[in-house]
Amino acid sequence: MVPMLVLGIETTCDETAAAVVERNDEGPGKILSNIVLSQINEHAAFGGVVPEIAARAHVEALDRVITMAMADSGKSLNDIDGIAASAGPGLIGGVIVGLTTAKAIALVQSKPLIAVNHLEGHALTARLTDATPFPYCLFLASGGHTQIVAVLGVGDYVRIGTTVDDAIGEAFDKTAKLLGLGYPGGPQVEQEALRGNPTRFQLPRPMHGRPEADFSLSGLKTALRLEAEKIAPLSDQDVADLCASFQQAIVETIMDRLRAGLRIFRERYGAPTALVAAGGVAANQAVRKVLHRIGFECGTVLVAPPPALCTDNGAMIAWAGAERLTLGLTDSLDTAPRARWPLDEVTAPPQQLSFFSRVQAEASVDGGGAAAEPKTEPSVEPEVEPRVEP
Length: 390
Prior knowledge:
Elements: E1 4-10, E2 15-23, E3 30-38, H1 40-44, H2 51-73, E4 82-88, H3 92-109, E5 113-117, H4 118-130, E6 136-141, E7 146-153, E8 156-162, H5 168-178, H6 185-193, H7 218-230, H8 236-269, E9 275-278, H9 285-297, E10 302-303, H10 307-310, H11 314-326, H12 355-365
Parallel strand pairs: 1-4, 4-5, 6-9, 9-10
Antiparallel strand pairs: 1-2, 2-3, 6-7, 7-8
């Protein structure tokens, strides 16, 4: 197979990103360039992402970021086989900027357009970095998403568990804001936790022991606020101890919920080839340690891409585009941007679906039946990627 080259564009939240990725028949992909321009400074004063500011920043920066990505790759647009862009879910202003730019390039260059689900980019990153075979169990945790997903094939995703309220990354960021730490909050809480006592405050472990694999973080966040109010004004050590106690509660919650998720995965699909971590929360070292432990306990390997590929980036979008383009999955220029787009609504041709998903689809056509695999539906799932709304 001649190597496939795809340009990927990512603008769903507060990173303006573009990358060129090469895909071959076998093995991991090759990242030829990966440019990420963060908007942290623009949003820091507000303690979270302001959608209007993010959209304007994407407009101002995207052309330059794409130019840099192409220059770093040593390729021209004539060499590119397809143009991939995040079409959602995300902050709709940013999504429009990236998708519209991709459409313009695809039209002028007569290249196929691939409208990528942002979450699919995260879901397939393990195949870019490690050529992880299907099926595997994905733990996706970021500012806007907390999900456990069975990744059965390209476009074949079953949500096993999700959050019923806040995402883990959102809880980290709101904790940081409550304690007067900087933005983005996740890294700040992690840093403070290193010098804190994780046993000082007895915080809850929401959903602990339940057979389903869902998460809930709002009660933990409220408990932390109440503990902080009891001892206000807070000393530096109080803040460190609150962060350490909060992070320990998160880590133990992840451990319990993933055990439930992996049990459900095995019951439905057999042993996963790997436990895959994705999203910004996967860059937290305490979380990574517990993910390694869970993988070992469950007899599978943990695949955790480098931290730079866990957060939003263009390489994951380019790779997802390459995977879809290989299967002939392209999109028309009238494809609409989407603020909401659950991962398990991403589609693939019937011949690409796993055995389990074909059975489910056939049972659905026949009016349902015992053979169908139920999907876990969220009560409330934030499908955009705000860290903290001001």
